[in-house]
Amino acid sequence: MSQNPPNLRPDLANARLSRDLDAAAPDRRAGQPTIGMVSLGCPKALVDSERILTRLRAEGYGISSDYDGADAVIVNTCGFLDSAKAESLDAIGEALQANGRVIVTGCLGAEADYITGVHPKVLAVTGPHQYEQVLDAVHAAVPPSPDPFIDLLPARGISLTPRHYSYLKISEGCNHKCKFCIIPDMRGRLQSRPMKAVLREAEKLVEARVSELLVISQDTSAYGTDWADRPEKAPILGLARELGQLGAWVRMHYVYPYPHVRELVPMMAEGGILPYLDIPFQHAHPDVLKRMARPAAAARTLDEIAAWRAACPDLTLRSTFIVGYPGETEAEFQTLLDWLDEAQLDRIGCFQYENVAGARSNALPDHVSAEVKQERWERFMEKAQAISEAKLEAKVGTRVEAIVDLVEDDAATCRTKGDAPEIDGHLYIDEGHEGLTPGQIVMVEVDEAGEYDLWGRLV
């Protein structure tokens, strides 16, 4: 298994047995069929799980937050890395042992023979975002028994996130051909959702008192470029303008640094969308980027970063990188560390390279040993931590807006505009926080900083 920390692993970041469903699942009525859900993988998979559960709830199914209370369990799998596949197989095995009636879906579901070869007793296997097939499998295993006078669907559907924020998936698939990635093989080419459908979903979420919309896809900047007849060259710009009018925080994830990103940044400076860009740079050395089959313009990227920050001084930049990619030399790795010194990104994550079945990078020569990958990962994270600590220390004495995530007896856990849920840091308020509520946006004066978190007091 990888040594990457769980909060930086896309295949572990949202692993749960529907632990957030209790509020959305009223007491089970007599005779009501009930389904459980194990959701593994990235936020895009989490959205798939929410859609499946919302459809089932609309058909009268109850939602169970544990194995014992479920007539069957759906396991939404991840297949991003071989270690993620192993974890998915473990989750399927656990559900089979605890419940016995298991339906498998998600990215690993694209390899049905692989799953049934290990777990032949699963009831059905479907691939990613195959909602109708999942519903058909549930109907076959546990026939629906709706009561239209009792079964009421929450206004925002079933959510696996806290009520005050929600992921907004705007497209499926990806047109990139990165050698280390098999997502295009599992989820297909880019398919953008109609803008009206995205905006209507966003409006309904805000009407249901969602305070923060997290825009996700495999390639957010490419949204709408698959349309033959599109209203503008880069439809993400029009979508961002419209989302910025809804009155909620709007956070952009998985934004490739295409030239038109320059036009997104002024919207951030004006306050329409959050000054936050999540950009997967992956590496900085041009030869490594070429071996990855990614754009190899790290120097120009530094120029772009400088231009973005000039247009929006409050901009927070998050990215993830891969160390130990096949053929990576010590000199190439040192180039990455030097690039980090120049780029001074605000939020930095790192993966150790792993082979994944079907990826073209498996066939590259000169694979890096596990010991060297671990050593480089530790050096990378030491650098990232030092940058983060200095960045946060500079915020002491400033005033920032923060959204409240959790209120407990000893403190309120919040996030600034520069912190996405589950992957970034927190801002803690430990005095005068008793009257705060999740989703509330407050002004805070920062009075202490750590390596990844801030502490402050209400203004």
UniProtKB/TrEMBL annotation:
GO terms for biological process: tRNA modification. [4Fe-4S] cluster 1 binds at C42, C78, C107. Binds 2 [4Fe-4S] clusters. One cluster is coordinated with 3 cysteines and an exchangeable S-adenosyl-L-methionine. The keyword ATP-binding does not apply. Residues 33-143 form the MTTase N-terminal domain. Gene3D superfamilies: Methylthiotransferase, N-terminal domain (3.40.50.12160), Nucleic acid-binding proteins (2.40.50.140), tm_1862 like domain (3.80.30.20). One of its GO terms (molecular function) is aspartic acid methylthiotransferase activity. GO terms for cellular component: cytosol; ribosome. Its cofactor is [4Fe-4S] cluster. It comes from the Bacteria. InterPro entries: Elp3/MiaA/NifB-like_rSAM, Methylthiotransferase, Methylthiotransferase_N, Methylthiotransferase_N_sf, NA-bd_OB-fold, Ribosomal_uS12_MeSTrfase_RimO, rSAM, rSAM_horseshoe. Transmembrane segments: none annotated. Catalyzes the methylthiolation of an aspartic acid residue of ribosomal protein uS12. Belongs to the methylthiotransferase family. RimO subfamily. This is Ribosomal protein uS12 methylthiotransferase RimO. It comes from Palleronia marisminoris. The lineage of its organism: Bacteria, Pseudomonadati, Pseudomonadota, Alphaproteobacteria, Rhodobacterales.
